[in-house]
Each structure stands twice: as structure tokens, then as C-alpha cells.
Write a structure and sequence with these properties.
Elements: H1 3-32, H2 34-50, H3 59-68, H4 72-98, H5 102-124, H6 128-152, H7 158-176, H8 188-200, H9 202-226, H10 232-252, H11 254-259, H12 262-274, H13 276-299, H14 304-311, H15 314-328, H16 334-357, H17 363-397
Length: 398
């Protein structure tokens, strides 16, 4: 299959899954209200922070290692299940902080985190289509869960929806993982193998820890910080804007998912890079159509100015993701650490200024903060990448 046919096939399934997720969010906001959606987004961010423990073996490392070591899938699976046990225990503490039943948090954490395991496993085996089909079915089940919630729970309790959607998502994920059931073992020796691997590969893994941890933090940092400044309605709108951005960057990430496999980077990298600007234009047009429509159907207002502003991030993101894939495939994570730290620094500097000056925080402010921090992250990575390449070439020329 040629690079563009493969890219189109993956993009179609990715778009279908993301489109259904979009539709489910519209139903969710229409059913429970924008303030409730803000609460839901805050719970998701809290669960996301619990997954920090999984940076001990980052998924980006695992994807490449599973291609090089046929025994590693079992090691990674044992590690993943061990961390899920720890996350389950941490849910008891989180329930006291967010005032949500621990059972709801456990179901939410497992349903959110388990598909990421499937993502790493399927990417390593070059089965991206299977993963996107999985996401499609999960999104479809989520729509059904919203409809059941709307018709059976007149009090609109968000916890009931989390249970419905979480159980259905887990059931579908487990079905897709049935062919890999031999990887799941309760043998204590399997966990001992994990500890031996962590000790043996500590030097190589250490370079991933900071970037993986800060990637997780960056994904939730603005939401968690902004929750102390704005009401749940503003937080809900911001979360919807980020849903659009996640959907668009998910489309733009499709070339990276192809290139993160050794065969893909060998066969398709040059063609993808040559057409990056055209891909960017298509993605931006999609952004400007999808974003305003999504917000309008969800809230009754398009917020088109916000989408127009954010849509220009797709160009640096495309170049950034391709350069990142080439480094990930070589186990080189150094620039990723620096660039993601730049994002966090932007947010932390802004937070410090907020406390020192005390200016008003609005939707415009927190959206602009995200855009500036993201652009700084992409631009810094690309600049350092180009500088590194030129320094490696220069001695050869001399």
C-alpha cells in the first residue's frame, strides 16, 4: 500500500472515531450542561495525574523496544498491570480530594488508561488500523452510554454516566486484547522480571522519565491550574476547545504514527515531509470547519475567533511531530525533555505573574496561554533539532 493510501485509510478510521467522540461530547454537554462538563474534565485531569507512575516504562520507549525485543511485550504487560494496581489504590486517596466515590474513580481510571496500553501494543506491531477501530467502537459505546444516561437518570448525575461509559469501554478494550491474553500473567516471577529490567535498563530509561512525566503533567496542567481561577462553565468551554485541538492534532499525528514504525519511516518519511505544508493546509481547513460547528452544537455559540487563532498551531505541530518520530525511533528523547519543559515553564511563569499582579483570568487568557506555551514548545524543539543536525553535518563537510 502506498504512503498516501495508508495515510488516508488510517485518517478515515481516526476521523470516524474522533467524530463519534465529538458527537458524544455534544450529547454530554446538551444533557448535563457546560458546568457539569467542566467537572467531568477536572476529574479526567485528576485521573491523568495518577498515571504519572507509568512513566517508569514510557509508551514511546515501549513501542520501539517491542519491535526490537520479542520478549518485551510480556515484561511491559506485567509492568502495566502492576501500575494499574497502584493507580487503583491511589483512587482511594483521590476520592477524598475530589469528593467522588472511589468506585467511580476506579472505573474511570481503568477505562481511560487501558486503551493507552492497546495503543502501544498495536503501534509496535504496526496494527494502527486495529487501534483506530478500537477507538471507533469505544466512541460508539460512549454515545450509547450518554443516551442511556439521559433516559434513565433524570437527576443527571455525572457519576452514573462515568460508570456506564467506563464499563462499556473496558469491555470493548478487553475483547480486542483477547489475542494477547497470554501476555497477562499473575506469576510473581513476571513482576520480578520487570524489576530486573528496570534495573538493567535504568541508564537508557532515565532519559525518558522527565519528558514522559512532564508530558502527562502538561496535558492537564492548565485545566488543573485554571480550575482555581475560573468557574466550571468557563472551564467547560475551555475543555471543549481543547477537545477540538486534540481531535485536530490527532489527525495531524497520523503521519507520526506511520513514521514511528521502522518500516514506515524507511518507506514514507521523505514523501510525508515533502507534503507537510499541504497536509497542514488540509488540517487547518478541517479545524476551521469542525471547531466552530462543534462548539455551536454543544453550547449554542461558535467561538470561531478562538478556533481561527488556534488553527495556526497545526503547521509547527506537523513539523514537530515528524522530527520527534525520527528521534523516538533512535531512542533519543533529549530534545523532547527540553521542549516540553518549556511548555511547563510558560504556564508556571504565568501562574507566578497571576499571584504577583493579580490580573483577571478569562477564557481568552487561558486559551492564549495554551497557544503561546504550545508554540514555544514546538519552535524550541525544531530549532534545537535543526541545530543538532547542522552540527553533526559540519564536521563531515570539513
Amino acid at each position: 500500500m502506498s504512503w498516501y493510501r495508508r495515510l488516508i485509510d488510517l485518517t478515515i478510521w481516526n476521523s470516524l472515531a474522533a467524530g463519534l467522540n465529538f458527537f458524544s461530547n455534544i450529547l454530554l454537554v446538551r444533557t448535563g450542561g457546560i458546568s457539569m462538563f467542566g467537572t467531568y474534565a477536572l476529574l479526567l485531569s485528576s485521573i491523568g495525574m495518577l498515571s504519572l507512575i507509568q512513566v517508569l516504562i514510557p509508551s514511546s520507549f515501549a513501542i520501539v523496544r517491542m519491535q526490537d525485543d520479542k520478549l518485551f511485550p510480556r515484561i511491559y504487560t506485567s509492568f502495566f498491570m502492576g501500575t494499574m494496581v497502584m493507580i487503583t489504590l491511589l483512587c482511594f486517596i483521590l476520592s477524598l480530594i475530589v469528593h467522588t466515590p472511589v468506585g467511580v474513580l476506579i472505573v474511570m481510571s481503568w477505562s481511560v488508561i487501558f486503551p493507552f496500553y492497546a495503543d502501544a501494543l498495536f503501534q509496535a506491531q504496526n496494527r494502527l488500523r486495529s487501534y483506530f477501530v478500537l477507538l471507533f467502537l469505544i466512541a460508539l459505546s460512549r454515545i450509547i452510554a450518554v443516551m442511556l444516561w439521559a433516559y434513565t437518570d433524570k437527576t443527571r448525575n455525572i457519576e452514573y454516566f462515568i460508570i456506564l461509559s467506563g464499563i462499556s469501554s473496558l469491555a470493548i478494550t478487553f475483547i480486542f486484547l483477547v489475542p494477547y491474553r497470554h501476555l497477562f500473567s499473575i506469576d510473581p516471577k513476571a513482576f520480578r522480571t520487570v524489576f530486573d529490567f528496570l534495573r538493567k535498563e535504568s541508564v537508557l530509561l532515565r532519559q525518558y522519565y522527565f519528558s514522559s512525566a512532564i508530558k502527562t503533567i502538561n496535558g492537564h496542567l492548565i485545566t488543573l491550574v485554571a480550575s482555581t481561577w475560573v468557574n466550571r462553565e468557563v472551564l467547560g468551554v475551555y475543555s471543549l476547545l481543547m477537545k477540538v485541538n486534540t481531535f485536530i492534532t490527532g489527525l495531524a499525528r497520523t503521519p507520526e504514527t506511520v513514521m514511528i514504525h521502522r518500516e514506515g519511516i524507511r518507506r514514507f518519511a521523505d514523501d510525508i515531509y515533502k507534503n507537510t505544508w499541504w497536509l497542514g493546509l488540509l488540517v487547518q481547513v478541517a479545524y476551521l470547519f469542525v471547531g466552530p460547528a462543534y462548539l455551536y452544537f454543544s453550547t449554542g455559540e461558535s467561538f470561531w475567533k478562538f478556533h481561527f487563532f488556534l488553527s495556526f498551531l497545526v503547521y509547527p505541530y506537523l513539523f514537530f511531530s515528524q522530527a520527534r518520530a525520527k528521534r523516538i525511533i533512535r531512542y533519543d528523547n533529549s530534545l523532547q525533555q527540553i521542549s516540553m519543559a518549556a511548555f511547563s515553564v510558560c504556564v508556571l511563569v504565568f501562574t507566578l505573574l497571576k499571584f504577583l499582579i493579580g490580573f483577571h483570568i478569562s477564557l481568552v487568557v487561558i486559551t492564549s496561554l495554551f497557544a503561546v506555551a504550545s508554540f514555544f514548545q514546538y519552535a524550541l524543539f525544531l530549532w534545537l533539532d535543526r541545530k543538532s543536525i547542522s552540527q553533526n553535518i559540519q564536521p563531515q563537510v570539513q
